[in-house]
Amino acid sequence: MQVFHNKSKVIITCNKRLSPYLQDEVTALGYTIERSFQTGVELNITLTECIKLNLNLRCASQILYSIKSFKAITPDDLYNEVKEIEWEELIDFAGYFSVTSNVDNPNITTPLFANLKVKDAIVDRMKEKKGIRPNSGSDANKAVVHLYWKDAEADIFIDTSGETLAKHGYRKIPGKAPMLEALASGVIYATQWDKKSPFINPMCGSGTLAIEAALIATNRAPGLYRMNYAFMHILGYNEEEFFAERRILKDQVIKNVDLKIIASDISEDAVEVTRRNAKTAGVDTIIEFEVCDFELTPVPEDAKGVVVFNPEYGERLGVHSKLETTYKRMGDFMKSKCKGYTGYIFTGNPDLAKKIGLKASKKIEFYNGKLDCRMLEYELYDGSRRLPQTETQPESE
């Protein structure tokens, strides 16, 4: 099975509502999208081409390479179909693999049972062909097989990523309630920031937004921070392909940037976490760190950029009076200190959003985990100007 050289269906998954930004990333890398849907895109490429995507994509979660599509109604159907695959040409018989799945089948009450059927089929095939079986378990740091099974339609994929791509590898200290790196990238893309004007991130928390902005501005890809992917544990892998892509990533980094990224937080600990994560990412010299109340965050007046808040949301139902005051203060700060900028507040609490006191020119839909969120956009003109409110909709399947 020449998976590294044969084209097949490839599904790149992402969290809900990140698909539009993932599509832009994929096409910018020169790939043709066959189909797009709410949680990803479909391509027709080789497994070798998946290496470049794994190293470059910021908004993706997994990159799945299809090795077989089939009909299956019962667990026995699944077992028999999976056992026919030439696993001895894909997985080292002395190696290790794990199984993940996305199952919606009336005959399966738990996905773990479907995973077990796939694992048993692989192991039984390998024992018959090689007289020995690979180890298996839940760790995703070696070969990973993914099952997609909806009603009678099933697909077996090689998960080329393994551990999720949504975490970019530099955040060694998470901080309190951090925003996932893939979501932070999507948020920055949604602002249409030009990567040259100031990027202001008050209430920065663990600094994910500010660090991702610095990574995007300097063209530092996530692949620079990771040395293990699941594709490395598939038979036929040529490590020179990986190192060639990494050399490209290193060469494309913009080392000297004339740029202001400012991250502030009232918590000294939060700013220290941000500083240390930024150092791991190699962008600590690009970001200005400030320990202060957000109202005292320095905002350059000579260039107009973006200011992005990701405040606490509180409980979705019911509003805390302290947060009401905070949201009002954010509105006042943007109105008085950020004239000429475009302001953004990312929140999962629509009741608190009403306390900001500004008219949003746009509401951009996101999910943070399972929480339905909006990023509110404010055009902060020197004078007063009211814009019609619009709602952006993600592309659906």
Automatic annotation (TrEMBL):
Keywords recorded for this protein, A-Z: Methyltransferase, Transferase
Any one GO biological process: methylation
InterPro entries assigned to the protein according to its UniProt record, in alphabetical order: RlmKL-like_Mtase (IPR000241), RlmL_1st (IPR054170), SAM-dependent_MTases_sf (IPR029063), THUMP_dom (IPR004114)
Signal peptide: none
Domain THUMP: 62-160
Any one GO molecular function term: methyltransferase activity
The keyword Protease appears for this protein: no
Family annotation (Pfam families): RlmL_1st (PF22020), THUMP (PF02926), UPF0020 (PF01170)
CDD domains linked: THUMP_AdoMetMT (cd11715)
Protein name: Class I SAM-dependent RNA methyltransferase
PANTHER family: RIBOSOMAL RNA LARGE SUBUNIT METHYLTRANSFERASE K/L, RIBOSOMAL RNA LARGE SUBUNIT METHYLTRANSFERASE K_L
